[in-house]
Specification:
By secondary structure, the chain is α/β, with parallel strands linked by helices. It has four domains: 137 residues, 3-Layer(aba) Sandwich (Rossmann fold), CATH 3.40.50.300; 69 residues, no CATH class; 98 residues, no CATH class; 53 residues, no CATH class. 37% of the residues lie in helices and 19% in strands. The chain has 18 helices and 14 strands. The strands form three sheets. It has an eight-stranded mixed β-sheet, sandwiched between helices. Helix 5 packs parallel to helix 7, helix 6 crosses helix 7 and helix 12 packs antiparallel against helix 15. The chain is globular and about 70 Å long. The C terminus is likely disordered.
């Protein structure tokens, strides 16, 4: 049984902000709750996906866990060591085992250093090695991340987006990391490069036993790579559970809204969900000073439908993250729980039901990227369609109408001829 490698308890990170000159004179300070009482755990060889809109605190959690940003309060236990209040000297031996792939690699990679020097710096920061040993280790890293040796003499500005990602991944592996915070590793990349990065991360996890905290706002990628998913809203985790469970039977209204965006807008089910979202109070709010009680209340369709009950915005009844099943945790407001008891049937948007139809229709499609399957599922009902068409692009037109346009685009760009052999690094897509 896998042991727990990371445990976070009631983690908080508040940023101090002054409202103006008078506030500075009177010493009246305001605090922005970037992360407010977050708790979760991560086991070895496991991936936890962290999703939510921009500004909800995802990156702050990653930086705080690694002690790149000091926590306001809470407890962080990594590999059995409480690192919350460790000094820099005490923390140094553990830092090599926990690393971060930064989102902005243009800022993370020194523009004046060649790839060879970037990797050498990472290799020698914790170990004293000879030049021959450094050269051998560099070659192993290039092989692990599928990067050509000719790129060693290149500067970061001369690399493509995918190559920069590979260099960033290689630097984390160079120090022997076991736990990696991947902050938007597929952002600003086209879908073909995204698939290569995802396949690489999963292959490394399988071979090296890595654990990931995968931060992203791309729900399809998160659902693809994650074992568990945590949904964040304004500094709090509102729902957490197995990736398939979150996508199929989400309990929190905010999770419903996020996953309904994956379904094609033209479908009747998705249109109903989108119209319901737009007609609710989905406006611009002051995220620096969230409402008391349930923070999602001003945007919640259930809150609006029930006439805005005061219990939802009462500070004394702030919803807590409750364990409603062995694999699902949810933070719901009081009015929502009264309307739909925990023991009752799970709330579902019709859009989620439409997504299940998509899953059935895609049950036999097998796409390949650079001889690596992106989707590999048992049934071959649609594989015959691809073979009959003889060309992947024309086969796209024969897919059922329930397949979303995004999935068609994703498949059309990624796939190669089905006749290719020697598949490696298969990834199972859970649509």
């Amino acid at each position: 049984m896998s042991r727990t490698i990371l445990e976070v308890t009631n983690l908080k990170k508040y940023y101090r902000q002054r409202a103006g000159i008078l506030s500075a004179v009177r010493w009246r300070e305001q605090f922005i709750p970037a992360v407010d009482g977050v708790s979760f755990y991560l086991k070895e060889h496991e991936t936890l996906g962290l999703v939510g809109e921009s500004g909800c605190g995802k990156t702050t959690i990653g930086r705080t866990i690694l002690r790149l940003t000091p926590a306001t309060s809470g407890r962080i236990v990594f590999d059995g060591h409480d690192i919350t209040v460790m000094s820099a000297r005490e923390l140094r031996p553990l830092r090599r085992r926990m690393q971060m792939i930064f989102q902005d690699l243009d800022a993370a990679l020194n523009p004046k250093m060649r790839v060879r020097d970037l990797l050498r710096e990472a290799i020698t920061v914790h170990h004293r090695l000879s030049d021959d040993e450094v050269g051998r280790k560099t070659g192993e890293l290039l092989e692990q991340v599928n990067l050509k040796k000719s790129k060693l003499s290149s500067f970061p500005r001369e690399l493509s987006g995918g190559e920069k990602r590979r260099v960033g991944i290689a630097r984390t592996l160079a120090v022997g990391a076991h736990f990696i915070v991947a902050d938007e590793p597929t952002s600003a990349l086209d879908v073909s490069i995204q698939a290569q990065v995802v396949n690489l991360l999963r292959d490394l996890q399988r071979r090296l036993g890595l654990s990931y905290l995968f931060i992203s706002h791309d729900l399809e990628v998160v659902q693809l790579v994650s074992h568990k998913v945590a949904v964040m809203y304004l500094g709090k985790i509102v729902e957490m559970g197995l990736a398939d469970r979150i996508a199929r039977a989400a309990r929190h209204p905010y999770t419903h809204v996020l996953w309904s965006a994956l379904v094609e807008k033209k479908s009747k089910e998705a249109s109903h969900a989108l119209v319901s979202t737009r007609t609710s109070a989905w406006g611009v709010y002051d995220f620096e000073r969230p409402v008391s009680g349930c923070r999602f209340a001003p945007r919640c369709s259930v809150y609006e439908a029930k006439g805005r009950p005061a219990v939802c915005t009462d500070a004394a009844t702030e919803p807590q993250l409750r364990d409603i099943a062995q694999v699902l945790h949810v933070r719901r407001n009081v009015a929502d729980r009264q309307a739909d008891p925990t023991s009752g049937r799970p709330i579902r948007l019709r859009a989620v039901e439409a997504q299940r139809v998509v899953q059935r229709e895609l049950a036999g499609v097998q796409w390949r990227v650079n001889r690596r399957p992106v989707v590999h599922v048992p049934d071959d009902s649609l594989t015959r369609t691809i073979h009959a068409a003889g060309d992947d692009a024309r086969a796209m037109g024969q897919l059922p109408a329930t397949v979303t346009s995004r999935q068609k685009l994703h498949a059309a760009v990624l796939c190669r001829r089905i006749g290719e052999r020697e598949p490696r690094g298969d990834v199972h897509v859970r649509t």
